[in-house]
Amino acid sequence: KSYANERLEISKFSQSNSNFKNALRAAYSRMAIFFSGMSFLRDFYYLVIITGDLAFSGKEEEYKVAEAFCQKLLEVTGLPNNRLFVIPGNHDVDRSEIKEWHLKGMYSFTAQDDIIKILADKDSFQILLRKFIEFNKFANIVSGRTLFDNNRYFYIRQLPVRKQDKTFSLNLLGLNSALFAGYDGDDKQKL
């Protein structure tokens, strides 16, 4: 299939509303209605990137709403799910998975060397990734792949793209920049 030379990037869906689930459903519904009237988008985009904050607190029920939106977005753009890339934001973190001792031991870094030590420690690394369990389930459903696992916090994909009868490779690096998110005030500090 040949794709045009455009990508669609969507960012920052989350809302800090006390009734988040209803507010999120309403926002996704409005966006789905907007996109449904744009049939000209079919075959225009070769890639959709959603850069974080698909949820408010990283809970399964929030991702069910996001999943419906992503399915509609793929339908409208005519893209297969392997052309959808989602990257977590700080609101995609399930903060209930973060214990007080995690904050003291893994979130109190002051230098890059501290971060390297945490990422190199297999036990600490697995604890850091545990807060993305629901995000990973969601990503697997909507894109057909698990993005982050016990061994990596990034992904690399090479995508063939056809433009003006020429095929080239687009190299995509998805980095989990929310890896150290999960404490109060994280959006104003070390992220």
Briefly, what is this?
The chain is built from 6 helices and 5 strands.
What do these coordinates show?
Mean pLDDT is 78; it is low at 1-5. The protein has six helices and five strands, in the order E-H-E-H-E-H-H-H-H-E-E. The strands form two sheets. A three-stranded parallel beta sheet has the order 1-2-3. Helix 1 (20-36) runs parallel beside helix 2 and helix 2 packs parallel to helix 6. The protein is 37% helix and 19% strand. The radius of gyration is 18 Å and the shape is globular. Strand 2, helix 2 and strand 3 (84-87) form a beta-alpha-beta unit. By secondary structure, the protein is an alpha/beta fold.
Essential attributes:
alpha/beta, 6 helices, three-stranded parallel beta sheet, disordered N terminus
SSE string, helices as H and strands as E: EHEHEHHHHEE
Tell me the β content.
Answer: 15-25%
* SS elements, strand count: 5
Low-confidence stretches: 1-5
Rounded radius of gyration (Å): 18 Å
Please describe the biggest sheet, giving its number of strands, its sense, and whether it closes into a barrel. Answer: 3 strands, parallel
Q: What is the helix tally?
A: 6
Question: What class do helices, strands and sheet pairing give?
Answer: alpha/beta
The termini sit apart by 38 Å
Oligomer: single chain
Which outline best applies?
Answer: globular
Write down the overall mean pLDDT.
78
Strand order of the largest sheet: 1-2-3
- Helical content (DSSP H or I, runs of 4+): 25-40%
